[in-house]
């Protein structure tokens, strides 16, 4: 203890204490933080509208209403969940298949949560079948419609830059919208979900109908995003493909830091 | 030499002997011969000898300017390589190079040639990345070099002119950077040019004419890329290199400033001569800078032009920002409210854009350039200064500097508001409002906090000089009284704390002379006195020798925890504690 006491005035003492404290706080938090309960029920083999309806009533109705007619919040001034008649199975597959729905907490928009998908694909399909039974809407696209190998990435790139890049960024890294809303990153997203997003226009996204972007063009866009995912990153690490901001930050922090470090080292060298 | 008969000590016998020089080696003779040949024809020996013997003081912060110089040289070297392959033309081609996702896409020759440099020319991509990273670090190093010069008062007489040249260089560097950023003709750089065209258009009355002049017709035309290319590879580098030569020649002429220390005065320079020490150090540092930049360029991708795609006026990408050094102007545009655009006499005045894009850019560098003259107004100081000031010893200047940095940073960070919004999960509107208010509030806070911190540090310096450092060692005397031992400093440490000069506001002359007549210059003097009070009213001045002597005489009384009775004993204990 004496050695510790003697060093309590050491200049680094506060920093060491702080780091220790932060580390302990983090360690304790990860140890005792509540884990999400695992409530996945056994897979349902049959994709019937009735089963979908039952699942919907159990999991979605609290916000979307018992018959998917939509509901307001308790105070009545905001929409808890919009009416779902006519959104189609594609919208259900997109929202639930990317972990956006069911939403865990109210937020400006539903965040994608690929690790937090609560339902098996069969269950999602069942709910989709139920929603599709309420009113006609876009269906889940076929595997062929979203196969990147069949698309033309060069044409997809042109279409992406004209239609998508202003929100989702040239490399699909995402971008900001107003008041905390955002266009999410579209890298590493399954082709079928990209197709469905264009078809149904989730959150703040506009609908890109088949008249606007034909199914073949949609497949080209999927092919373009697929080449971005497959690309071997020419030139090195990408700093998030967010444009010049991260490059400037890197130059200031690491570039200047390294060079000043070298200058200090060289300056302290006696001649 | 004639020998004298007087008996002398042995050493004196060799007095006046001419030492036989060792015969020069064949190589040295050849070099000497060439040097002599050149000297006979150019007379270069004298100036080169002068430069080689030039003494430079040593401090790591003096190398920040070197970082800028070396990055510029690296840009020049790599830039030459890039000009071998780059085609400054907007002629249309269909791309058929190695980058598959763009094959078959229609694009300009400028963009296609940049793609070729990146994918088909051996070493092209790394050279391009070195060029870009070196450009970013060039501008970064200029700024931090400027910080060093500003906060140490190195811009004072006789170096005001060099400060002005430096400010112009800094402005030229960012314009050069912007011109280069615009050349690849990818979506990002094209967006930059489009924005620039818009900025120029907001110049009242002449805006549209200017744009037609710059673009050789309506936007985008075919002239802008070749013109920017000429500016980027000819005009601006020539200006930069020319002015930089003057900049560094003035450093050699006026001698480098040095930090205060024992033996360092306003009339000498303590350091090492260029040859061999400083040349080795500075030359070695070039390779360190080149190495670091090459390392970064080899590992970190910069400006992936293949990802942006060819320029087309209709699309734009999220995250369209200029490189960081133009960020402050972009950020100002994001902060300026829309109601600044209004109609006046039937004409639309777009002050929401003009203020940020056309006024701010030159204004920042103008304010920088005139600062030495503003401070000179407050000090009326006509002396030459070759000793640097510690930033704490000029609290108001340091405060102004920090306030300026804060205002600049607010606008610069505002340019990244969208990236902050998505990466930090914030609302872009909230960020914008934070910066809008922060632009006015944060510099004031920064000034106040910095100034108080400097004054507190100065007071602590006084305290340290007068009473030594609190050792934390409590001594108990045989009678049971306690006191803390204070360690006095070594004289050379103390010197640094007391060497600077005392400052006080300028005395204002009476506004009326002895005959009751108002002096014509009274109003101007009043302003100057007010400025001087702003700078020096609450100056904390260094310990004078008299104060120090008095403190050493009575110091122990203040240090005793209980009132001292037998001061003799305490004094002896304290003396024992001194280093």
TrEMBL record, chain A:
It is a multi-pass membrane protein. It comes from the Bacteria. Its main location: membrane. Heme c 1 binds at residues 60, 63-64. Residues 47-229 form the Cytochrome c domain. Heme c 2 binds at residues 164, 167-168. PROSITE patterns: CYTC. The keyword ATP-binding does not apply. The chain crosses the membrane at residues 249-267. Its EC number is 7.1.1.8. Binds 2 heme c groups covalently per subunit. It catalyses: a quinol + 2 Fe(III)-[cytochrome c](out) = a quinone + 2 Fe(II)-[cytochrome c](out) + 2 H(+)(out). Keywords: Cell membrane, Electron transport, Heme, Iron, Membrane, Metal-binding, Repeat, Respiratory chain, Translocase, Transmembrane, Transmembrane helix, Transport. GO terms for molecular function: heme binding; iron ion binding; quinol-cytochrome-c reductase activity. Pfam families: Cytochrom_C, Cytochrome_CBB3. SUPFAM superfamilies: Cytochrome c (SSF46626). The keyword DNA-binding does not apply. GO terms for cellular component: plasma membrane. It is found in: Cell membrane. The cytochrome bc1 complex is composed of a cytochrome b (QcrB), the Rieske iron-sulfur protein (QcrA) and a diheme cytochrome c (QcrC) subunit. This is Cytochrome bc1 complex cytochrome c subunit. It comes from Phycicoccus avicenniae. The lineage of its organism: Bacteria, Bacillati, Actinomycetota, Actinomycetes, Micrococcales.
TrEMBL record, chain B:
InterPro entries: Cyt_b/b6_C, Cyt_b/b6_N, Cytb/b6-like_sf, Di-haem_cyt_TM. This is Cytochrome bc1 complex cytochrome b subunit. GO terms for biological process: respiratory electron transport chain. Keywords: Cell membrane, Electron transport, Heme, Iron, Membrane, Metal-binding, Respiratory chain, Translocase, Transmembrane, Transmembrane helix, Transport. GO terms for cellular component: plasma membrane. Its EC number is 7.1.1.8. It is a multi-pass membrane protein. Its main location: membrane. It catalyses: a quinol + 2 Fe(III)-[cytochrome c](out) = a quinone + 2 Fe(II)-[cytochrome c](out) + 2 H(+)(out). One of its GO terms (molecular function) is quinol-cytochrome-c reductase activity. Residues 549-579 are annotated as: Disordered. Residues 261-456 form the Cytochrome b/b6 C-terminal region profile domain. It is found in: Cell membrane. Residues 34-260 form the Cytochrome b/b6 N-terminal region profile domain. The keyword Transport applies. Its cofactor is heme. The chain crosses the membrane at residues 67-87, 133-151, 163-183, 195-215, 235-253, 285-306, 344-374, 394-413, 433-450. It comes from Phycicoccus avicenniae. The keyword Heme applies.
């Amino acid at each position: 203890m004496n050695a510790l006491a003697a060093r309590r005035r050491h200049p680094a003492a506060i920093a060491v204490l702080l780091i220790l404290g932060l580390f302990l706080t983090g360690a304790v938090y990860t140890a005792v933080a509540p884990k999400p309960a695992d409530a996945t029920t056994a897979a349902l083999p049959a994709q019937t509208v009735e089963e979908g309806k039952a699942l919907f009533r159990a999991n979605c109705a609290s916000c979307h209403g018992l018959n998917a007619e939509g509901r307001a919040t308790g105070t009545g001034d905001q929409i808890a969940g919009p009416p779902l008649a006519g959104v189609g199975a594609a919208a259900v597959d997109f929202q639930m298949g990317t972990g956006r729905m069911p939403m865990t907490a109210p937020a400006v928009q539903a965040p994608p949560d690929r690790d937090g998908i609560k339902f098996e694909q069969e269950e999602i399909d069942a709910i989709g079948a139920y929603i599709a039974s309420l009113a006609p809407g876009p269906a889940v696209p076929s595997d062929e419609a979203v196969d990147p190998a069949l698309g033309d990435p060069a044409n997809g790139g042109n279409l992406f830059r004209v239609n998508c890049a202003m929100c989702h960024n040239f490399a699909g890294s995402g971008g900001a919208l107003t008041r905390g809303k955002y266009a999410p990153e579209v890298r590493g997203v399954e082709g079928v979900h990209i197709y469905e997003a264009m078809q149904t226009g989730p959150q703040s996204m506009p609908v890109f109908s088949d008249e606007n972007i034909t199914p073949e063009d949609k497949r080209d866009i999927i092919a373009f995003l697929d080449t971005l995912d497959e690309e071997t990153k020419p030139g090195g690490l990408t700093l998030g493909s967010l444009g010049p901001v991260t490059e400037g930050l890197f130059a200031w922090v690491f570039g200047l830091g390294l060079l000043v470090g070298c200058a200090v080292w060289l300056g302290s060298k006696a001649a | 030499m004639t020998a004298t008969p007087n008996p002398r000590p042995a050493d004196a016998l060799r007095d006046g002997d001419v030492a036989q020089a060792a015969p020069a080696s064949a190589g040295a003779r050849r070099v000497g011969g060439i040097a002599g040949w050149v000297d006979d024809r150019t007379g270069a020996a004298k100036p080169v000898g002068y430069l080689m013997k030039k003494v430079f003081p040593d401090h790591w912060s003096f190398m920040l300017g070197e970082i800028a110089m070396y990055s510029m040289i690296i840009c020049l070297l790599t830039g030459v390589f890039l000009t071998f392959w780059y085609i400054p033309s907007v002629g249309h081609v269909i791309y058929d190079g190695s980058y598959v996702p763009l094959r078959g896409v229609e694009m300009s020759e400028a963009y296609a040639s940049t793609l070729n440099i990146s994918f088909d020319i051996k070493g092209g991509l790394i050279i391009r990345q070195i060029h870009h990273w070196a450009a970013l670090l060039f501008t970064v190093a200029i700024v931090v070099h400027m910080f060093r010069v500003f906060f140490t008062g190195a811009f004072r007489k006789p170096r005001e002119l060099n400060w002005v040249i430096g400010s112009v260089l800094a402005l030229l560097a960012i314009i050069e950077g912007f011109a280069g950023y615009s050349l690849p003709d990818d979506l990002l750089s094209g967006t930059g040019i489009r924005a620039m065209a818009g900025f120029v258009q907001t110049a009242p009355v002449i805006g549209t004419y200017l744009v037609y002049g710059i673009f050789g017709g309506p936007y985008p035309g075919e002239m802008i890329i070749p013109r920017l290319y000429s500016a980027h590879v000819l005009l601006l580098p020539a200006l930069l290199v020319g002015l930089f030569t003057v900049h560094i020649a003035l450093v050699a002429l006026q001698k480098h400033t040095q930090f205060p220390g024992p033996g360092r005065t306003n009339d000498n320079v303590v350091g090492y001569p260029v040859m061999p020490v400083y040349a080795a150090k500075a030359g070695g540092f070039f390779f360190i800078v080149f190495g670091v930049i090459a390392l970064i360029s080899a590992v970190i991708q910069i400006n992936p032009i293949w990802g942006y795609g060819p320029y087309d006026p209709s699309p734009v990408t999220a995250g369209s920002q200029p490189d960081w050094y133009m960020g402050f102007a972009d950020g100002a545009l994001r902060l300026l409210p829309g109601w600044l655009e209004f109609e006046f006499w039937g004409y639309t005045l777009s002050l929401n854009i003009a203020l940020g894009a056309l006024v701010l850019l030159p204004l920042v560098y103008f304010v920088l350039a005139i600062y030495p003259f503003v401070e000179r107004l407050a000090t009326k100081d006509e002396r030459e200064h070759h000793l640097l000031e510690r930033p704490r010893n000029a609290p108001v200047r340091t405060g102004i500097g920090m306030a300026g940095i804060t205002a600049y940073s607010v606008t610069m960070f505002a340019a990244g508001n969208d990236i902050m919004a998505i990466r930090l999960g914030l609302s872009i509107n909230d960020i914008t409002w934070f910066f809008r208010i922060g632009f006015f509030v944060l510099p004031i806070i920064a000034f106040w906090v910095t100034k108080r911190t400097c004054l507190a540090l100065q007071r602590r310096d006084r305290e340290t000089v007068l009473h030594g450092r609190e050792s934390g060692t409590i001594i108990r005397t045989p009678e049971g009284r306690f006191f803390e031992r204070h360690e006095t400093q070594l004289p050379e440490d103390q010197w640094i704390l007391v060497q600077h000069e005392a400052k006080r506001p300028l005395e204002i002359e009476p506004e009326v002379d002895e005959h009751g007549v108002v002096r014509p210059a009274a109003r101007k003097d009043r302003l100057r006195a007010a400025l001087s009070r702003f700078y020096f009213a609450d100056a904390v001045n260094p310990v004078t020798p008299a104060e120090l002597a008095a403190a050493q005489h009575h110091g122990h009384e203040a240090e005793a925890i209980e009132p001292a009775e037998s001061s003799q004993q305490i004094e002896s204990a304290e003396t024992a504690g001194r280093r």
